[in-house]
What we know:
This protein is α/β, with parallel strands linked by helices. It has a single domain, classed as P-loop containing nucleotide triphosphate hydrolases (Rossmann fold). Strand 3 and strand 4 form a beta hairpin. The radius of gyration is 19 Å and the shape is globular. The N terminus is likely disordered.
Amino acid sequence: MTHKRRGKYACVEERALVDGFLLGLPKCGTTWLAEVLSQNPSIDFSNPKEPNILSSHDGTFDRIYSEPDYESYLRVFSGNGFRIDGSVHTFSCPLAPERVFGINPQARFLICLRQPVERALSHWKMIRDSGADRRGGADWYDFETAWADQRLKEDSIWSDSMARWLEIFEKEQFLFIDSSRMREEPENVLSEITSHLNLESFEYDCDSKKESNTARSRKRMTPVGNAFKAMIRLIPQPIRNVLAKPLQRRGMNIYDLPIISIPGELVSLTGEHYEICSGEVIPDLRRFEEMTGFQTSHWQNAFDIQ
Length: 306
């Protein structure tokens, strides 16, 4: 460990601004996990799920390098429980480790991981369905083009980002979760998370919203939908949160209306996708395993099968 010191912002109030992070990664089941963890009254999950205040990475494309607004950060938490920030792009942000350490050197971290090529393909498909690439000044018209863009690749190439976190935090502060286990043994995963966060055991409803943010449930925006979404973005986030709560309680998503969205096209993972990524992903998986102890051999073996 290179340095240990008191958090710069740890005393802005009587307690740390944040206690833990669902640190990553996009398209690894974090939406489902955030919704299930929010059932626990001992947990105060950030609202919105991804405030993107401490990270310079605001989603896949936007980069904001100004100093974080810590007063606004306080407002994303509303209770007195264990505060968890769900900004999953924080993992790959080079500025985030120092900023988080400045707030809470004892923070706990959850990192959801998924087979890197599968994850990248799902991320690319989500971006294409939503049109976020064009709004971000890019055109990810095919997977190979998207993979060449560091903004997609950095969430499937993990070692450099992980090294930055481990320069500052102890490995024991991180819990690594294979996203497939959230489908196959959710109770065990949630028990491990609760223990890692040093919270009392809690009985979660693991069947709630299993299809959260999956390819099957996701739709492509129509031109009307894109215009509507642009107008929604003009509304300040706190007001959006208030307006969204009644719909969330009823399980309604206004973006599912036929005039706003249509079903997206499903894309299957093929050997070509593995070939595009293999030269960078395989050595990175080996390095990540050496660095963290998290087993990646089953993901490395997938390249031999293709």
